[in-house]
Amino acid sequence: MKYEEKMLDSHLLYEGHILKLRKDSVLLPNEHKSTREVVEHPGGVCVVAVTDDGEVLLVRQFRYPFSEELLELPAGKLEYGEDPLECGKRELREEAGACATQYTFLGKFYPTCGYSNEIIYLYLAKGLTLGAQHPDEDEFLDVVRLPLEQAVSMVLKNELPDGKTQAALLKAFLLEKQEHRQH
Known about the structure:
By secondary structure, the chain is of the alpha+beta class.
C-alpha cells in the first residue's frame, strides 16, 4: 500500500516575516478526509566548522522560545531561492568569524516533519581561517571552541539539546572516524 495523502484545498492562516501557517484538507489513503496544519519555512543551514586542531566552533546564544541560552553550531535561515552552501558560508562568517577552504555536504535534516516543511542543510567545514564575527544587529552570541570529541560527548549527555547541532555533530564525527580508518 502506498501511504500518500492528496491535498484537496489549502487556506493560508498566517503570513509572517519568517514563516507561514496554512490549513490543508487532505484525502487519506483509506479515502477518508482529514486536515493538516503546515508551517512553511524557507529552511536553513548548519555548519560543523572543525579547526586543524580538531576543535569545533559553536555559538552560545539566547533562544527566546525556550527562555535559555543554548550552545549550537553556526546556522541560519535561507532566503527563498538562496543556495544552501552560500548561506552556510555567510552564516559561518557572520556568527563565528570563520571562512573555510573545504565544505562537505552532510545531508538534509527535517527538524519537525510532522508539521513543517523546513529543511536544514548540514555541512562540514575545514581549512578554517578565523577572523572577526559580523552578527546581524539582532544577534548576540559568543563563539566557543571545543574538541569535536567533547562536543559529541555533550550530545550524548543531553547537554546540547538543539536537534540540528546534534545531528550535524554526530554525522561529522562519524565521517571523521571513517576517514581516519581508511588512511
